[in-house]
Every structure is written in C-alpha cells, then in structure tokens.
Amino acid sequence: MASLVLGITSIAGLAFFGILGVPLGILAIIVGRHSLKKVASSDGALGGRDLALAGIICGIVGTVLGTMLLVVGVLLWLGLNGYTF
Q1: Has residue 46 got a pLDDT over 80?
Q2: How far apart are CA 14 and CA 69, in angstroms?
Q3: How many whole angstroms separate alpha carbon 43 and alpha carbon 74?
Q4: FRET label pair with 21: which of 6, 29, 36, 66, CA 20 to 30 Å apart?
Q5: Average pLDDT of every residue of the chain
Q6: What is the DSSP letter of 82?
Q7: Residue 85 lies in a domain
Q8: What is the reported pTM?
C-alpha cells in the first residue's frame, strides 16, 4: 500500500516541475520491490501483490516524467538566461 501512495504522490509531484516526482518515484519503486519480495516469500499468507505492482508502475511513470520535466526546465532556464546550445 505504501508503494502505491508514494507512486501516486510522485505523479502528483510533477506539478512542481518534477522536483518531487523523481525522489518519490524512486522510493515507490524501492518499497514496491521490497513488498513484492515479501509477498512472494510468504507462500500466500500475505496479499497486496497488485497494490505493490501498481505502486511500482506509478513510481516508474513519476520518475520518468519527472526526469523529463527537470531536463526541459533546465534547458528552458538556460535558454532564457542567454545560454546558446
């Protein structure tokens, strides 16, 4: 469940030019992978595989989009400050 919350928050964090999206997305991936390992090693005693997987997917989306937004933001900032490529 925590990975899903982190993943959704990473996507919502994209509103801040990706600054919050990237670290929260990475955390969602780490927590989701840990949860998947715990569920797999429990021999069916623990549930939540789908929630962990959804958190990983949201974390990947938040990380990729956040990285893209950061790169575009830096390039725009450099361009507006007179830097030529």
Answers
A1: yes
A2: 8
A3: 47
A4: 36
A5: 91
A6: T
A7: no
A8: 0.87
